[in-house]
Task: structure prediction
Amino acid sequence: MTAFPFFTEDASVNAVNARIGAGCDPRLALVMARLVHHLHAFVKDVGLTQDEWGLAIDFLTCTGQMCDANRQEYILLSDVLGVSMLVDAINNRRPAPATENTVLGPFHVDGVAEMPMGSNICKDGAAEPCLFEGTVTDLQGTPLDGVRIDVWSDNEEGFYDVQQPGLQPEHNNRGVFVTGPDGRYWFQGIKPVSYPIPDDGPVGQLLGRLGRHPYRPAHMHFMIRRDGYDAIITHTFVAGDDYLTSDAVFGVKQSLVAGFDPVTGGAVKWRSRFDFVMNPVASEVPA
Ligand code: BEZ
Ligand code: FE
Result:
């Protein structure tokens, strides 16, 4: 017989966790036991009513029903609750001056073809052309070659190509570049614009009920990878954007706000410089 065969309000956590079997994977046992501990504390803390519990079940049901191959409402929920940023933060602690991470978001696409450095990633010619440039170095400032820089942004109306198949050219405002020995990168895109996260589902309704807006400040996504270094998954944010201090998914970090300077006398209207610094992967501790 287990130590807590019957459920009581006071011993509710023990009643549940005492049933975890001896053969359970230790990490699973720890995570689930702590989850039950915090969940029960939450229910007791707020004195959850039967109606509120029913509402929560309906909300989670709708969230699941909103998901398909192109829409992941649970990730959106995690994003707006700050959980995505917290998981990212505790798993990507880096020493200065390494570039900080932020949320990946749902709009990254694998398999975009590598382009020659300097290419234009905007395929519909719409919006304000912007030159993105900078360097990728290690912590000591040494330029890194062979760095794969995967970039993506929304279009002038605030939509990614995958949100408007048939309307936007495939891989519009996406590109992959590889640095040479000088560690430099440069490419032409557009000055990104702020946009709402998909808010036509339960997560959007929740934001509305909470008096929160669904907007993200304008940003360019970067995924920067090289063997031997931590991958950097991040954005650069447009300095001065109205939503910098109220990002719906909490993705903004001060160090990621980039200047976008006007350029006169040519086709390119803006220029944004940002230097990335990579952190070496933690060396294996010898056995
Ligand atoms: C994005 O920046 O693409 C994004 C991130 C989180 C939720 C929705 C969109
Ligand atoms: Fe984005």
Notes: The radius of gyration is 23 Å. The helical segments are 12-17, 26-46, 50-65, 73-80, 83-91, 202-209. The domain at 77-284 is CATH 2.60.130.10 (Protocatechuate 3,4-Dioxygenase, subunit A).
